[in-house]
Amino acid sequence: MTEGRIQKALSGFYYVAAGDQMLTCRARGKFRKEGVSPLVGDMVEVRELGNGEGFVERILPRRNAFERPAVANIDQLVIIASGAIPKTEPYLIDRVASIAALKDCGVVVLLNKCDLDPADRLYDIYTAAGFPTLRVSAETGDGLEELKPLISGKLSAFTGNSGVGKSSILNALDPEFDLKVGEVSQALGRGRHTTRHVELYHLSCGADVVDSPGFSSFETEELNLELKRRLPETFQEFRPYLDDCRFVGCSHTKEKGCAVLEALRAGKIPKSRHESYLRLYEELKPLQEWQQKNKR
Ligand code: GDP
Ligand code: ZN
Fold first, then answer.
1. In the list 88, 176, 201, 202, which could disulfide-bond 81, CB 3.0-4.6 Å?
2. Each residue's pLDDT tens digit, 95-138
3. Would you call 194 exposed, middle or buried from its count of C-beta atoms within 10 A (0-12, 13-18, 19+)?
4. Which CATH superfamily is domain 224-295 in?
5. What's the pTM value of the predicted model, to 2 decimals?
6. Which option is the CATH number for 71-219: 3.40.50.300, 1.10.510.10, 3.30.360.10, 3.40.50.720?
């Protein structure tokens, strides 16, 4: 058996990187019977047939799996934001950072376009919330050397609102990135983000990346329901206080004796993070009611 990682899935074929070769594989029928399907990012065992072909025989245990984009074993989300146009709303960052927490995924906040605007407000919020936060410019290359050690040897999903500079950053990191992506778009005859095709790209700095469209692409109804159930703990800087609230089941929105609100007043939790918490709390509320109704 050969062990490798699925780099790409296309038309029923899995392309597995094993050492320095790329094996073109089919999956065993048993996966379909068991209701599991191999995902891009999966570590798998392949039975080689020769000629660079093989069968995926086993999927090794996953760190996590996302339905959208359909990918497994993401180590971290690199959340790209900007203080220049398009200016990123903290709420968008917080929402996707919470989803990362649900999936046991790290987060790196990358503030791009710092040649135009230093994004001071975002920098202060995310540094205070405890996220590795970097200022970069894809245009000038500033900050990119500091980014490399944070992504090297890991599988990262790059996400951000459209126009924030995702492709510019990936290209600045590795000028061949666009070429690699271009091949696939061309082969499929479609644009970069118009397919559901997912692929891992290996950058020259040793990072593996999945390039995914906007923040909202990670959301599914199931994830949102789980987020509703586990919301407080997905705000990492709330965690030290969650056991100290006066009431069990405290919602950390307005209760007396709430340790989270107290930490907020003491300046230990960024105000904007708690505002996002409140907004998410309200937004996810009807979802849970809907689910309970269906259960009766
Ligand atoms: P994407 O939609 O997130 O992939 O964004 P793009 O990489 O296509 O970038 C959108 C626009 O912003 C393009 O016109 C880029 O040239 C520009 N851009 C990207 N990064 C920077 C940057 O760091 N500084 C400046 N000034 N412009 C940038
Ligand atoms: Zn509380």
1. 88
2. 999 999 999 999 999 999 999 999 999 999 999 999 999 999 99
3. exposed
4. Probable gtpase engc; domain 3 (1.10.40.50)
5. 0.91
6. 3.40.50.300
Q: And the tokens for 175?
A: 């000028």
Sequence ranges of the domains in the chain: 2-61, 71-219, 224-295
Homologous superfamily of the 2-61 domain (CATH): Nucleic acid-binding proteins (2.40.50.140)
Ligand 1, atom 18, residue with closest C-alpha: 165
CA-closest residue to ligand 1 atom 24: 113
Amino acid sitting at position 18: A
Range from 41-45, 65-69, 204-208 carrying the lowest mean pLDDT:
65-69
User: Nearest-CA neighbor of 154 among 38, 63, 65, 76?
Assistant: 76
- Ligand 1 nearest-atom number relative to CA 113: 23
Which of 168, 193, 201 has the most ligand 1 atoms within 8 A of CB, as the residue to mutate?
A: 168
Cα→Cα distances 228→97, 172, 223, 286, 289, Å = 14, 37, 9, 10, 11
Pocket of ligand 1 (CB under 6 A): 112-113, 115-116, 137-139, 160, 162-168
CA of 242 to the centre of ligand 2 (A): 6
> Which residue type, as a one-letter code, is found at position 120?
D
Considering only CA atoms, which residue is closest to atom 6 of ligand 1?
A: 165
